[in-house]
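Table 4 source record.
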Amino acid sequence: MMKKKKLMGIVGAGLLVAVVGAGIYVNRLLPIATGYAAKNLASAVFVSGRQAADVEALDLKFSLIRYVSNTVDAEHKTVTSRFLWSKSTAAFREGYGVTLLRGVTPEEWQQQASPLPPDTITAEPLPPGDSTLSTRLAPIARAFVDHRTYGGHPFAFIVLHQGGVVSERYDKGIGPDTRLLSWSVAKSFVNALVGIMVKDSLLDIHAPMDIAEWQGDDRKNITLNDLMQMQSGLEWNEDYGSDSDVNIMLHCQQDMGRFALMKPLEHKAGTYWYYSSGSTNIVMRYLRRFFDSDADFLTYIRRRLFAPLGIRNAVFEQDISGTPIGSSYLYATATDFARFGQLYLDDGCTGKERILPEGWVDYTRTPASNSKNRYGAFFWLNKGRKLPDCPEDIFWCDGHDGQFIGIVPSKQLVVVILGYSPKPANEIDRNKLINDIITVIP
């Protein structure tokens, strides 16, 4: 009898520990779930101009997110999302896009905004490309966007050849003026911004960074180059399916760059490759300190990067600290993303104007030493043959859920894909798509 009671006690204690552990884990997941829903729905509605019901039926119909209840306040431009005991609110500000509010009310957040000068960027439409090539590509575009033959759920698809548009197609409800989410494609824009600041003699990417929190240990040796090549050595977990570092950073933190830079060093800087969205937000936070205000920083991005390319009304969303979220949250049109890809195809120039330093694109395409030829500096590379049927020289910007800007120098191509195409259930077969495009190029 005593043995039975003891056994029952052990089982009861085990169940209690399991229940408490499960409760703690769920409690950590809830703000991620409600934060994801609030932020992404608010941006889709107030930045992209999409219908809330469409977004909930497609973009938010997965995992715990599907059970979240969302309230859209069109008057105050907020979204509040609730699930069990968790609630998250995201708010839109003109020029700044949407921010997930942590520790501030929507009213306080609106009052903190520095007024941005109006976006007066002008641009000529991209020129049309060869009409014969457009005709050859039309069946591929229809198959991809209309019939989803290559997988995924594309919203927008553009192909440039020799700088001209040879294919352009949009999903229902999406058009040329729809600003769409970049996810990690934004990292490549941070590459360009660093390059511009190097050209302006503001940065040395190979010098140790002067970050106060790093001065007491070996993190003081980390360089911008280490971060851009994803070889900082900082501890990081990029698993989007759990309460990982990337999810906690994006959905629970006021200062995302500081959250990432406070991670301990696991490997000597420059010796170990590991993909980290935290690295990009450290870089963006570091760049922000060269400017007196949030508005000054965003104005610099507009003036030095967006304006020369003719990128109009793009939005780089911020965290609560005021730093643009370089890892994930840039909204721009498909044409804007195509203009960006063309900049790298043209070796950092647009027209007769050099935007990026001489040799910057070559630096960008140089494999990080421990990446197995897969990664350069905030760009992915095909030297590791991730796309086995595509040219080795293709390099690309790659975003969560299928965002893509592919640059193929040997074929003078830029390919832009935007949409909602999560892995593995609904992944786009990029290898086949790009190979099919290339086969029709004379």
